[in-house]
Amino acid sequence: MAKAKTVFVCSNCGYESAKWLGKCPACNEWNSFYEEKIANSSKNINGENKVKSIPKKLKEVEGIEASRTSTGIGELDRVLGGGLVKGSLILVGGEPGIGKSTLILQLCDKVKGDGKVLYISGEESAEQVKIRADRLNINNDDLMFLGETNIDNIQESIISINPKLVIIDSIQTMYSEEITSAAGTVSQVREITARIMRMCKDNGITTIIIGHVTKDGNIAGPRVLEHMVDTVLYLEGERYFSYRILRSVKNRFGSTNEVGMFEMKNEGMVEITNPSSILISEKEGNPAGSVIVATMEGTRPLLIELQSLTTPSVYGIPKRTANGIDYNRLAVLIAVIEKRAGMPLGTQDVYLNVVSGIRIVEPAIDLGIVLACISCYKNVSIPQNIVVIGEVGLTGEVRAVNMIEKRIKEAEKLGFKKCIIPESNKKLLKDNFKLDIIGVKNINEALKVLELK
Question: What's the rounded mean pLDDT across residues 109-117?
Fold first, then answer.
């Protein structure tokens, strides 16, 4: 009997090696290799006959416009680029308990009347899914449930039922008997996804895969998983806050610069069509250290409140805490304040918070962070009717940001009277706005405008 062949596979990136390695040469991860047996099979993994492809001229290929089906959820349609594309493969990732299964189950109810929907779960029983469906008032007679983890049985059920939409929750629980490794390993996830992709493409079945994420926030399994699917969506948000952001990081049928916003309630994920008004609605009074900034999530402008608190440091090393922005960015901006504005924050503990638990990574809120910190340090309030926009450089200059007109229009729509923006952006404005636009070249000019100098 021939000896079974083995290969060593990196559990982090899927790199294969003939021998065990302490460090993966592809992703530089240590102790990530595990041994895997190679199945001896002369036929195709799906038992299909291999058909030889013949090259053809690209100009002779007839282009077919992708047909879309609305999900019935406006924010989800926005992220997908208009709706579900027939035969597409969509991957939805997010932390446990963030609301992935809830959102997808609501989607199953909204597409009623368009054909059968098959919900395949490898984690929950039919009773558990039914309890959630009753809580969400799901009432779709075409919604079917299958509790299965074997891909062969799943494939037979899909072919026999021929649904319009298939949900797989989650990809890490599925396994193939032809692969010797356990479910959730690199080889299993890669092979299961490949089989699902072939099946949905050949039969024109739209498939949504739910995937777990690692502690770094990436989809668990090999990186090639994201390359195989047509669309990758991430559901983000703090577990202890009710707001959620659905972000597209890959979309073959639409833009990757769109986000959808939801609020988690008892009745499920509720769309937020005007997020700016909600995010700043809880601001009370006009305390020092509070400022409204305009940021962009994809192509959508958002107005968000920043709060800063500075107190004299009791210990020798001042403390800096950042919630919602990068800690290192806050440290850099504090250094800029000390050097360029002459504010001795080196003796102060500085705390910064982005209200509502949303994380912001773009630099257009830099000027808002600077002004919020100085406002609290000087104990001088920033007027409530002012919005601040601008990136701050190491020399204290206020640099231009993109999509400035969209940000200003959002502020104007919500009734703000003044907007502090970079001077270079003000020179390029074409539209006439009702609110007063003030251009500044550096942080000292912004401080003079707000009488914080």
Answer: 87
